[in-house]
Amino acid sequence: MLHRLTAVALLFLVATTTAHAEVCATDDRGKEVCLDSPAERIISLSPGATELLFAAGAGDDVVGVVNYSDYPEAARELPIIGSLKRLDVERILSLSPDLVIVWVTGNPKEQTERLEELDLTLYYLEPRDFEGIASAIERLSTLADTKEVGYREADRFRAGIESLRDEYGDADPVPVFYQVWDQPLMTVNGEHFIHEVIELCGGENIYAELDRLVPRIDRESVLAGNPEAIVAGGMGEQNRDWLQEWKQYGSLTATERGNLFFVPPSTLQRPTPRLLEGGATLCKKLETARERR
């Protein structure tokens, strides 16, 4: 009888320990973040982080987001706790989060430091390349105990990238200017994940060698670079106005050949699995440019 009670006690101890097992993941600052148990009340401080949380299977655990967290549709129904640049700290505290996902370069430092002072657990995220995106999904799913969903989605993303690479890896190069913003005029350098998508499609980023990740440039340098294709997002998913400006420069190869291409910005400017959609669109646009030679 004593042996039986001891066995039952051990089983109870194991079950209790498992239920409250610590979970850990390294964030994009290289810091290991540990929780006493999987996160159940998560706040996202960027639209990209919101998408990654849903991709990781943790959407049901998200209790607050910043504005413009518009994908997937369920994210639109969540409480707003401010914007990327200005957080409502009191609102965040009222939601009692056990995990806050911070965007490394997007959120105000003084406010994120304040959240740390208030003993909230912060996890810094900002993937810079394809593998970083897949890894982010896996790490978030670890913290939320949704690894089955998260790891499956990460594998789907990796496979989709490889499929595009197989299809366009040997395509003739197309010199590309990618416009991130209009005023001031901005682009991306060779360290940015958008550059990686351009290369995936057989494009050549004419600003790859610049030092800043998202450098400011002028129109004269674009004219001097004479890209074969100009690709832009815009202020919205259907807003193509940024491309109108380039139509006045008839000497540009991109303008002369009609290679002024719009790609919905949320599919190409957020490091999330939707890069597969944006990448497929961009690859088709650059294939059109090749056909117009």
CATH homologous group name of the largest domain = Nitrogenase molybdenum iron protein domain
Summarize the biggest pleated sheet.
Answer: 4 strands, parallel
Low-confidence stretches: 8-18
Number of helices: 11
- Counting DSSP E segments of at least 2 residues, the number of strands comes to 10
Strand percent estimate: 5-15%
Q: Can you tell me the CATH class of the largest domain?
A: Alpha Beta
Q: Provide the CATH architecture of the largest domain.
A: 3-Layer(aba) Sandwich
The secondary structure category is alpha/beta
Strand order of the largest sheet: 4-3-5-6
Kindly state the percentage of residues in helix. Answer: 40-55%
Rg value: 22 Å
What string gives the helices and strands in order? Answer: HEEEHEHEHEHHEHEHEHHEH
Query: How many angstroms separate the termini?
Result: 86 Å
CATH topology of the largest domain: Rossmann fold
- The mean pLDDT is 92
Describe the structure concisely for a colleague.
This is ABC transporter substrate-binding protein. This protein has 2 domains: 137 residues, Rossmann fold; 122 residues, Rossmann fold (3-Layer(aba) Sandwich), CATH 3.40.50.1980.
Describe this structure in words.
- This protein is α/β, with parallel strands linked by helices and 293 residues long.
- It has helices at 2-19, 47-55, 89-94, 109-117, 130-144, 147-168, 193-200, 219-225, 241-244, 253-256, 275-291, and strands spanning 23-26, 32-35, 42-44, 62-65, 99-103, 122-125, 174-179, 203-205, 229-232, 260-262.
- The chain has two domains: 18-154, Rossmann fold, CATH 3.40.50.1980; 170-291, Rossmann fold (3-Layer(aba) Sandwich), CATH 3.40.50.
- Strand 1 (23-26) and strand 2 form a beta hairpin.
- Helix 5 runs antiparallel to helix 6 (147-168) and helix 6 (147-168) runs parallel beside helix 11.
- The longest helix has 22 residues, at 147-168.
- Residues 8-18 have low confidence and may be disordered.
